[in-house]
Design goal:
alpha/beta, TIM Barrel, 8-stranded parallel sheet, 39% helix
């Protein structure tokens, strides 16, 4: 079974929107049985999740500042609210607005923090998004500050940190950065939007689907983080500008982790995300493969 930890639903009530049924048509044949919904609009996301059991959790947003605690108390009362996401610029001033104190409160409620566009030079996404903040040295160091000061907080680095993929072995700078991340046991890597990181495509051109192109990147992630700190996300429908990630992209990582064995594959596709997001099954298909240990 597969839990997709990174996808979006947009404008679900209009004909050109991206709704659960649009996603299900693509994902169900691939064995995807549940998702973590990424939306900044907390109320809309939780309302949709309440009626759509495909969604096992919502990773929402709480703005920094004096109202963080009251918002956290209100949103965390809903068991489908599983954590928040910050962009790198949100944490650059990590010592202001009680940021560390608030993240400790997040951890105390057993919720997690996703981080997007934290690493300098974040690559990928539609061209219109490339002018947006792409991470700085300051945001990167703030991430490590949070990991050190709030070691009980589970921190997810989205989209493999935004590293560009060119089909070659990972360069020394990124390898060193990943090794630095790996020293913090509360840091996890979301292997999401993989084809969006490919550098070889021109405008409006799909990314390559060649398994060999992505293997050097996956080898580095596996060798540094191992089987317990990597997990799957599609970034659908954002990923559609680069390729059919639900189909071809998913098959890339399925092939890779199948080589690592059945247990490693289970961890990558659902067990690790269950540890990080603490999601609870809502459908029978989301309970497949449960062991006595998992039920505890």
């Amino acid at each position: 079974m597969i839990i997709d930890t990174h996808q979006h639903f947009w404008n679900v009530d209009i004909p050109k929107g991206k709704a659960p049924d649009d996603y299900r048509i693509l994902a169900a044949p691939e064995g995807v049985v549940g998702t973590i919904l990424r939306l900044a609009e907390n109320e809309d996301a939780l309302a949709l999740a309440a009626t759509e059991p495909l969604i096992v959790g919502v990773c929402g947003a709480i703005k920094r500042g004096p109202e963080f605690q009251s918002e956290l108390e209100r949103l965390s009362a809903n068991p489908l609210f599983r954590g928040i996401c910050y962009i790198g610029r949100d944490i650059e001033e990590v010592d202001k607005d009680d940021c560390i104190a608030n993240l400790r409160k997040l951890a105390a409620r057993d919720l997690q923090l996703d981080l997007l566009r934290v690493c300098p030079g974040f690559f990928g996404g539609p061209r219109a998004m490339q002018a947006i903040y792409t991470g700085t040295t300051k945001s990167l160091e703030s991430m490590f500050t949070i990991a050190e000061r709030v070691p009980e907080l589970r921190i997810v680095v989205e989209h493999i940190g935004g590293m560009a993929i060119d089909g070659n072995p990972v360069n020394a700078q990124w390898e060193a950065l990943f090794k630095r991340m790996a020293k913090h046991p509360n840091l996890y890597i979301k292997v999401s939007g993989l084809m969006e990181r490919a550098t070889t495509r021109a405008d409006a051109e799909r990314a390559t689907e060649a398994f060999s192109f992505y293997r050097p990147t996956l080898d580095t992630l596996w060798n540094i983080f191992g089987e317990d700190r990597l997990f799957y996300g599609s970034d659908w429908p954002v990923c559609e500008h680069a390729g059919d990630f639900i189909g071809h992209g998913l098959r890339i990582v399925r092939r890779y982790f199948a080589e690592k064995g059945e247990e490693a594959s289970r961890k990558f596709f659902w067990k690790n995300s269950k540890h990080v997001y603490k999601w609870v099954p809502r459908l029978p298909a989301q309970r497949q493969g449960k062991t006595a240990e998992d039920r505890r």
